[in-house]
Amino acid sequence: MHHPDLRRLHPLLKILADGHFHSGQQLGEALGVSRTAVWKKLQLLEDVGLDIQAVSGKGYRLSRPLELLQREQITAHLTSNSQTLLNRLEILPVIDSTNRYLADRPGSGQACFAEYQLTGRGRRGRAWHSPFAANICFSLTWYFDDTASTLSGLSLAAGVWIAEALQRAGITGIGLKWPNDVLYSGHKLAGVLIEMKGETAGPCQTVIGIGLNVDMAGAAAESIDQAWTDIRTITGQRPERNRLAGLLLHHLLTGLSDYQVNGLATVQARWNELDCMAGRNVQLHHPSGILTGTAHGIDETGALQLRCKDGVHSVHSGEVSLRPATPARQCG
Q: Does residue 329 carry a catalytic annotation?
């Protein structure tokens, strides 16, 4: 798929990132190009979801300032332990998909952040669109000696690590919805996409993809077909993307290292504490029909425990989608 070379547009982005007006002449002089060339570059920025305001007599500016991801600022939030677990960190301006990019890179601790994904995906292959440099999307590789069947709870554990990172950033009231959604007051804030490659009875290479809504403004926000929120809405302040990225990366690295040894047992109790559906009447949409019952957290394998009239059903990730039959309660 064709996309603008954002590496060449980076000098222009750095100027506009402050959110102030810059005249076409000023931009042209700073970049060493004509005003016509500046206009063409601005058009390319709009193509990746940036909202450029043009005002006669003032010039051009971004509707909101940008905080571009920077390696040094992200790694500043890693501890010596998580620094050791990180083998590679890449920050790309644009990529088809961070999960796909890392799919053929074996080993653990390889992280890739992207300012813009052309074909970002959520659960069940749904498209996940994010404006340029507005949210946080990244993937992390991890190698497990265990079989893929023992990793059924990995997306649940990732949800706990995301919640802990956000709590470390001072954001309280985070909840989890089975199997892999991170919520705030019943609205989706983040999601997890786990992809695995390996033999059923052998070692497994995984890619953990994370998408966090940070500042989901503009047309991309209008295209979302579910209740959602973002960090800016929750805090009422301009979010620190690099700090959030660093905290997320730290908690995933240390969490995966622990999970590799102890499995889901390390976070099962914490997941159940954060479960937004606990004790609620829910509907589980299954290919063979709909189950209605009361949600009672997860077991040691990550299976949702659903109490129905005929007893307790264990429902495994990927088999169903969960829809509340009663209003969401406040999580925390």
A: no
Question: Which amino acid type is present at position 104?
Answer: D
Domain that residue 165 falls in: 71-273
Q: Are residues 47 and 120 in the same domain?
A: no
Annotated catalytic residue within 123, 280, 307, 329:
123
- pLDDT > 80? residue 274: yes
What is the phi/psi pair of residue 234, to 5°? -65, -45
Of residues 104, 179, 89, 178, the one with CA closest to residue 138: 89
Q: What is the residue-wise DSSP string for 236-262?
A: SS---HHHHHHHHHHHHHHHHHHHHHH
- Tell me if residue 323 is catalytic: yes
Upper half-sphere CA count for residue 61 (Cβ side, 13 Å): 13
Instruction: Return the pLDDT at 331.
Output: 52
Is 188 assigned a catalytic role?
yes
Q: Assign residue 262 a region: left if phi > 0, alpha if psi is -120 to 50, beta otherwise?
A: alpha
Q: Which of 41, 61, 121, 188 is an active site residue?
A: 188
pTM value is 0.88
The predicted-structure confidence for 161-189, as pLDDT tens digits, reads as follows 999 999 999 999 999 999 889 999 989 99
Let me know whether 129 and 243 are in one domain: yes
CA-based nearest residue to 291, from 308, 310, 311 = 308
Residue 291 bridge partners (DSSP): 284
